[in-house]
TrEMBL record:
This is Transcriptional regulator LysR family protein. SUPFAM superfamilies: Periplasmic binding protein-like II, Winged helix' DNA-binding domain. Signal peptide: none annotated. It comes from Salinisphaera shabanensis E1L3A. InterPro entries: LysR_HTH_N (IPR000847), LysR_subst-bd (IPR005119), WH-like_DNA-bd_sf (IPR036388), WH_DNA-bd_sf (IPR036390). Belongs to the LysR transcriptional regulatory family. It comes from the Bacteria. It holds the Pfam family HTH_1. The lineage of its organism: Bacteria, Pseudomonadati, Pseudomonadota, Gammaproteobacteria, Salinisphaerales. Residues 8-65 form the HTH lysR-type domain. One of its GO terms (molecular function) is transcription cis-regulatory region binding. Keywords: DNA-binding, Transcription, Transcription regulation.
Length: 301
């Protein structure tokens, strides 16, 4: 007799899965290191608990009924989820986070991060990584508002209690324009007066609560503001303006001749960038990324 609300036991789902995989009760019993009578009892108990027939036994070989097939399909999902839950709990007990949240500053080309992510996924395939791209103060804001665990490539971060930092890759800038832009044929090095005559393409700060910041702009220079570094480079390629670009973003564009560099009378200095994380965050996944990404001779603050 079926009992209302009887739970389906994992043991029964494992037996059902083994029968379907190995083709018989005897083979299923062997795979689970049990005797065939125990497997038969488990299935009979499952049918009794649910008040359904799981196997049609009228023929030479037991065949799953439609209800039995539903139990098998959904049961396999439950078994997978159960195994993943147990593994996740063991990882967390061992101080491995179930998910890591990273914010990448737009100054850093994403391809600089792909090798580290590939190595992490090979070593820890069950840990999820969520990567977001932010601009200027947005990277810092995402960390202090607990939206991410690690901020990568932050330039000129403010000092704040409870935030640790480590040097990351320095950012080298090149001043770019399209090959057919008037500045490409202008006498060089370019003065600030020459630059003011042409529109600058800039990427908007993605911070929502903090005061917006800007960098590399001249007073009185007209500008086109876009939302990402990718859009900035594309706009410069189309001749819509000029601007400083991180060298890591435009290497291929320069080699292909889609952009050209201009010498400036006052070039923009190489800018250090940092990894930032909260002192209270101490998971092993976060520590893995800090160790992998931090500059080799790196003072930590």
């Amino acid at each position: 007799m079926a009992t209302q609300g009887s739970p389906v036991r994992l043991e029964a789902l494992e037996a059902l899965d083994a029968i379907a995989r190995y083709g018989s009760f005897a083979a299923a019993a062997a795979s689970l290191y049990r005797v065939p009578s125990a497997i038969s009892y488990t299935i009979n108990q499952l049918e009794s608990d649910l008040g359904i027939t799981v196997f049609d036994r009228s023929g030479h070989r037991a065949v799953l009924t439609p209800a039995g097939q539903l139990l098998l399909d959904e049961g396999r999902r439950i078994l997978t989820a159960s195994r993943e839950l147990g593994a996740a709990a063991r990882r967390l007990a061992d101080n491995w986070e179930p998910e890591l949240r990273l914010a990448l500053n737009g100054l850093i080309a994403p391809r600089e991060l792909w090798p580290a992510l590939a190595d992490f996924h090979r070593a820890h395939p069950a840990i999820n990584v969520r990567l977001r791209e932010e601009i200027l103060g947005g990277t810092w804001e995402a960390l202090i508002e607990d939206q991410v665990d690690l901020a990568i490539g932050v330039a000129d971060p403010p000092t704040k209690t409870g935030i640790q930092r480590a040097l990351f890759n320095p950012v080298e800038f090149v001043f770019c324009c399209a090959p057919n832009h008037p500045l490409a044929a202008h006498e060089q090095p370019l003065t600030e007066d020459a630059l003011r005559m042409h529109r600058a393409v800039v990427v908007a700060d993605s911070a929502r609560a903090l005061a917006p910041r800007s960098a590399g702009l001249l007073d009185g220079q007209p500008r086109l503001t876009v939302a990402s570094m990718h859009s900035k480079i594309e706009a410069i390629e189309q001749g819509l303006g000029v601007g400083h670009c991180p060298a890591g973003w435009v290497r291929d564009h320069l080699q292909a001749g889609r952009l050209v560099t201009c010498e400036l009378a006052t070039p923009r200095a190489v800018q250090p960038s940092y990894l930032l994380w909260k002192s209270t965050t101490a998971g092993r996944g976060l520590q893995w990324f800090i160790n992998r990404l931090a500059a080799p001779t790196n003072p930590r603050v």
